[in-house]
Amino acid sequence: MSDSAQIHLKPRRIRVVCWASAIALVVVFGLVATSLTGPTGNGYGTFQRGDQFAMVGLGVFGALAVLLFTRPRVEADARGVRVRNVIGSYELPWEVVRGVRFDRGAPWASLELHDDDLLPMVALQAADKEFAVEGVRALRRLHQEHLAALAGGAGPR
Fold this sequence. Notes:
This is PH domain-containing protein. The protein has 157 residues and is an alpha+beta fold.
């Protein structure tokens, strides 16, 4: 098995949607902040500069929260696979992986582990269509190469 075979996968469509949404969120909250001036109505309160900064700050925090969805990625090589989802990261050797699954109707691919767990790989999303399918095929090839190397090394000497 070649040690040079490395796979780096990131979702495509969700990254574009998240960046556009984050920019729109900051712009909308910025526009709302500029409209917050003067009295709050019939009461004694008035919007002040701090309220405007707070609105912009909320927009920035909201944008950062949306950008968390650009975090997922999958990296794999001859030694194993590293999965980073929105929350949580996993580094697994190929020995614990039973297979790579992408079930019909599933939103993303997953790793089937020998202890019957399923580890979702949010980076390989059904929305990315052919890109996700090619990513799953590449991961399956690496996994098969690892299994073939184990089978080849397990023979009598």
